[in-house]
């Protein structure tokens, strides 16, 4: 079957996103699309055909990240057990902090380049933290309607839960400060945050 004009296959799309994370983490948001294209082994025009602009490419990066993070909130099993779903979401939040330079380097670059590239910084915020909180709030609203939780303001509750989980660990990760955080500790934090959150917002 011939390929539709402008369409690229999933493997190429993933290669572009992976290359963008690496290049933007290393060189900041001012890094050229040419360098991203070289790293992904595609033409610069291919990237523009698919994403349109650097801001939209960054938005796609964040969309992929948020999709991975919020998966536990979107499964039928998770919705049946809010504590397990929230703990799983919390573990993923913490896991992102354990990614090291590949994960946090991208956000550090966005923060440092916010003044020179505000449209990219805005895309990072809107498609990243804002969208993940929106999906968490939607989950909390569904659980409240089902009678398993009592969140009068799901958006505010979503901010509370995320803050309980990542706290100052995210700041430390962005600054490259060691907080002696490992997978076992991250798991314990996520489970305890979910337990306390469910207690605070019990139906």
Provide a brief overview of the structure.
The protein is 73% helix and 0% strand. It has 203 residues and is mostly helical.
What does this structure look like?
The protein is an all-alpha fold and 203 residues long. It has helices at residues 10-27, 33-40, 44-51, 54-70, 76-80, 82-97, 101-112, 118-127, 129-145, 154-166, 169-175, 183-200. It has 12 helices and no strands. The longest helix is centred in the first third of the chain and has 18 residues, at 10-27. Residues 1-6 have low confidence and may be disordered. The chain has one domain (55-200): Tetracycline Repressor, domain 2, CATH 1.10.357.10. It starts with 9 loop residues before the first helix and ends with a helix.
Task: Report the β-strand fraction as a percent range.
Answer: under 5%
Ranges where pLDDT stays below 50 over 5 or more residues in a row are 1-6
- Structural class, please? mainly alpha
Number of strands: 0
Secondary structure tally, helices: 12
Give the overall form.
Answer: globular
The CATH superfamily is Tetracycline Repressor, domain 2
Helical content class: over 70%
What does the main sheet amount to?
none
Radius of gyration: 19 Å
Order of helices and strands: HHHHHHHHHHHH
Average pLDDT, to the nearest integer? 85
Distance between the termini: 54 Å
Oligomer state equals: single chain
The level 1 CATH classification is Mainly Alpha
CATH topology: Tetracycline Repressor, domain 2
What is the number of independent domains?
1
The CATH architecture: Orthogonal Bundle
């Amino acid at each position: 079957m011939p390929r539709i004009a402008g369409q690229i296959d999933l493997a190429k799309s993933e290669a572009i996103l992976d290359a963008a994370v690496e290049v933007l983490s290393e060189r900041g948001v001012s890094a050229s699309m040419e360098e991203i294209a070289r790293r992904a082994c595609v033409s610069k025009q291919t990237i523009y055909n698919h994403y349109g602009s650097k801001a939209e490419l960054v938005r796609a990066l964040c969309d992929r990240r948020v999709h991975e993070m919020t998966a536990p909130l979107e499964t039928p099993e998770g919705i049946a057990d809010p504590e397990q779903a929230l703990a799983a979401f919390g573990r993923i939040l913490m896991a992102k902090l354990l990614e090291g330079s590949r994960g946090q380097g991208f956000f550090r670059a966005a923060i440092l380049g916010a003044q020179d590239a505000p449209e990219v910084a805005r895309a990072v915020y809107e498609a990243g933290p804002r969208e993940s909180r929106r999906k968490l709030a939607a989950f909390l609203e569904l659980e409240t309607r089902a009678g398993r939780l009592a969140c009068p303001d799901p958006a505010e509750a979503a901010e509370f839960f995320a803050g309980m989980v990542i706290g100052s660990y995210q700041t430390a990760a962005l600054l490259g400060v060691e907080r002696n955080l490992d997978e076992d500790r991250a798991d314990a934090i996520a489970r305890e945050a979910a337990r306390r959150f469910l207690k605070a917002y019990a139906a």
